Amino acid sequence: MNGEINLKKFLQILRKRMLTILLTVLSVFILTSIVSIYFMKPTYEATENILIGKLANENSNYGDSQELSMLLASTIDFITSPIVLNTVRKELNINDDELEKKIVVQNNKNSQIVNVVVRENNMEDAKKLVNTIATISVNKMKEEFGVQDIKLLSEINGEPSVKRVGSLTLNLAIGIFVGFLLGVGLSMMKEHWDDSIKDVKEIEDFIGLPVLGEISIKNKNRKYQNKSGSTQQEKVLNRSKGGQISV
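User: That's the sequence. What structure does it adopt?
Assistant: Structure tokens below.
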């Protein structure tokens, strides 16, 4: 019963503070729109695929699945190693200390394909960076470790795949949701600090007794007239002057 009362009270507060909630949602929505359109840079995600071993079992040199798993794990670690990253920096002539944070290496279970993912604010930079990382990794695996059954799939399919991460619609939807939560929070805070009594129902809930009646006190400037039509102020003025009227 107490839970039902609290829920009912909560809904009453939301209805009473609806204007606060709407203004908060509108403000956050406008702020999110401005930031998303004019300040937030787009993010692009480029992906390169590296094939480890041969897919046909009869032609594969890796008959042991454990050996293939070790090669996959070694390749994943090697892609983000300083050997590869320093070579990438030198080839692209960049000095990015956070290059490793931009790289994500993925491998699905029971898959011989390693996905190299790079995020950048420029589409062409993302494609160039991920292709350079994957190409250097494959070449060094062949040269330094003697791994021959490894290839870059973009050599067959063309160029790396690129997609844009996030959208304006998603940002605005998140802004509306966050604005609603902030509006509810502000409403509850205003209700907590507001000690004024708005209606009879609040008095009854506070004292626990029914209200038998109420008196409406309003300040109105009224002019009371006597039967002859003169106001009370004119009547007093005439008495003080003995009935004389001066112009």
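Confidence is low (pLDDT under 50) at residues 223-230, 243-247.
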